[in-house]
Amino acid sequence: MSHTHQKVLDDIRRSIESQLEERDIEVDGEFIAFVVHLLIRDVRLGLVKTDLSKPSTCHVRTFVENVVSWYLDDSDTTMANLRLSWIMKTGHGISLAYVREQYEKDYQQQLKRIIDDILQYPETCSKVQLDQLFSKMQVFIVATNHLGCPKNHVLLKLTAQALHSVIGRSDLQNYVLKKKYHRQEYLKRLADTVAGILIFNNDGPDGDRENVRNIIEDLQMAQANTNAAFDAALERLRELSSRCQTAISEQLQFDCKETTLYYGVPFAQLDRINQFTITFNMLMRCLVALQSSYEHTTYLLSVETGRYDCVVAKINASLAMRTSIDSELIFPHFVYLAKVWANLNHYFNHIVELNKLRERVEAQITSGMVQRSKDTIAEIQELSKSHSEMRKCSFNQRMDTLKKTQTDGNFCSLAQADIKEFCALAMAVTNGLLLPAKVVRKLCMNVDIQFGFQDETYARIGELWFERFITALRQSIFNNANLVLLFQLDHILIAKELQPVPAEPPKTKDFTGQTEMVVTNDLKPANWINVTWNAWDYHRETIHLAEIRKRQTCDTQSTITYGKRNAQNQTYNVRHHLR
């Protein structure tokens, strides 16, 4: 690790892990390190005001106890944000290529045993052994192409019929005479051909839906359920977030002409509601990322479904009005159909993994947390009724609140964050309260950052007070761990710290070598005859090679084009025959 006070942070991490292990809780050390490195920068929850070179034991103990209590509390918003961020970082199921690779790896490990059983049969197989080989081939074809349950005897019977149409007993006897690597390659081609026949025979309304899997219907059902789940979750989160933002905006009034802020309750109370706003929006952004990956998969799925329909139509056209057809003409279509089927299975597996990730992130927002947000809003609304008049303060006073707080965040890093959804001026003045934005402006021409504002007057103040506004906004975001997680800026703050310190190269290095012996009066030519110290020699050689290259021709000269008559049946004696 490369943090300046890494030893202190390691001690804090070990203290947290030991307290959690005492409660028989499984702990991910990398996640705890991620939590510690991020929370110590939080001005409200961390150790920003503590000198880590000489840390106070009391402050460190309080921080450790707080982290442990947040970890055990399912309704804590900060820990929910940390878990959401960690799930999205470590959830490789969002990548289609990763899911494809992992599923293929798992299936190959599961099929390795049956492949070895098929390849072990000797060249001198008896009738009983050939029957066993034939039965194992059926299981292998069903399992490797995901056609259904390999224990289903009806499915195995249909597979045997398709296999009989491709390979007979004499062909099976010839199969065991091949080399092992040839047998394995032939087995894969045979499995694709038979699977394509079985898929084609069961396509359409007359197919055996009870025994043979129909991937098209499975995908249609999966898409319908996934779309409904995403839509319902996002609609619910938008409602919860809107309720929290409305409760905050009711307690605030911005007078942009007088640059004065009026508030009904203390900002600490409003920050309690703001924590729920951040968490709901954090989950919403996680779901949007998963939905984006899902929509990409559905597009690829629609393309692959078109290919499936196309190849089925091609096979139907090839078989129409024919009593027999050459296997070399039709079998490649069955192999291609099996490949398309395999791609559809990969897309189905990816949708399954995306739904697993969706359920994991949704589980972080418990019903207790939702109820706490409602209770907090009701409590603050009652508290505001006890205050007859709203208090006021200037924008400058609020912006200077975090002026003395140090942060590692850089203003240019905000270009990587999507902050245009919330009012930037409100965040800068209120030190991180989220209010919806209706206007988007780009205030800085040097950095591509789009800021959101509630209206044009807010944007005008951000323009006129650009330096103060940017400083306050940067302090508000980077000193709030929840906002850092929401805008996905955590990797900028702590990525370098979570990497191991590179080993410094040694200042001195032993070198064993021998000085070349210089031979005087040596009349032998130099070993490197093309080496010269004159750079113009290289230029001349380059020009010479270029001229040779320009004269090169691609024409060919044969005995017939040379002009020899009847050259294809004439014999000409070479010189050594004339002696």
UniProtKB/TrEMBL annotation:
Example GO biological process: cell projection organization
Keywords for the protein's UniProt record, in alphabetical order: Cell projection, Cilium, Cilium biogenesis/degradation, Cytoplasm, Cytoskeleton
Superkingdom of the organism of origin: Eukaryota
Cell location: Cytoplasm, Cytoskeleton, Cilium axoneme
InterPro entries reported for this sequence: FAP206
GO (cellular component) term, any one: axoneme
Pfam family, one: FAP206
Main location: cytoplasm
Entry's family note: Belongs to the CFAP206 family.
Main function: Essential for sperm motility and is involved in the regulation of the beating frequency of motile cilia on the epithelial cells of the respiratory tract. Required for the establishment of radial spokes in sperm flagella.
The name this protein goes by in its record: Cilia- and flagella-associated protein 206
